[in-house]
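---------- Forwarded message ----------

FYI, see the Transcriptional regulatory protein record below. Original note from H. follows.
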Amino acid sequence: MMARERLGIYGERMSEAGDPTGRGEAPFGVLVVEDEEIAAKAHASYVDRVDGFRLVGIARNAQHALAALTDRIIGIDAGQVDLVLLDMNLPDGHGLMLVRSLRARKVPVDVIAVTAARDMQVVQEALSLGVVHYILKPFTFPVFKTKLEAFRSFRLSLGAEQGGNGQITQSQVDAAVEGLRAGTGPQRAKGVPDAVQDQILGLLADEGHSAAEAADRIGVSRVTARRYLEAMADVGLLERRPRYGSAGRPVLEYVAIA
């Protein structure tokens, strides 16, 4: 099967395997770079849950990641990696050092930082090196999904809009960048104040609550609490699940999607 090409964030050619979906859009290959085992598995699982993406591999440190992205790891094809989900605090060096090495070697991959590092100087330098998104830990799956979908839309729009000479217009560039910016904010439920959504997400992060229990904790009526919880569940921030007791009908409870 012949490989196709698509453009990276800097316009570099990126080889792409044939489309397994038959829709003309091959999934983006993702390398997760994370030293904590639980976090690495969680991020890998998240990748598999987002349409249009597939996990290529997991690297546990900067050296391993660099080797994987330069075809020095058996079992990982560097040409199949389009996106790196990069933790900044790695045991053998800072994530920015890895990004600099990738840029110096002209490795054609895009990078999304997935990290707890909140230093503004680090954020600014990451963006200056072409890191396309910056996801702060802890985060929920809907936030992660929004970022990846915005990245995918951005990349596909660049590939779709270019003409036969590989050039695009200013309006096409503006539309592509605007699509990328659409993923900068977390998913929000309409009709629920942001402060209340944050309060509910914090409350339901570790254990589920029924509407009545949540109402008592956040100080609203049961009817209002149920309306808030249902709105947040509809946009994927919360999961509904039954809680079975010793007798009677199960109680519907809500839990934050990690």
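H. also flagged this: The chain has a mean pLDDT of 82.
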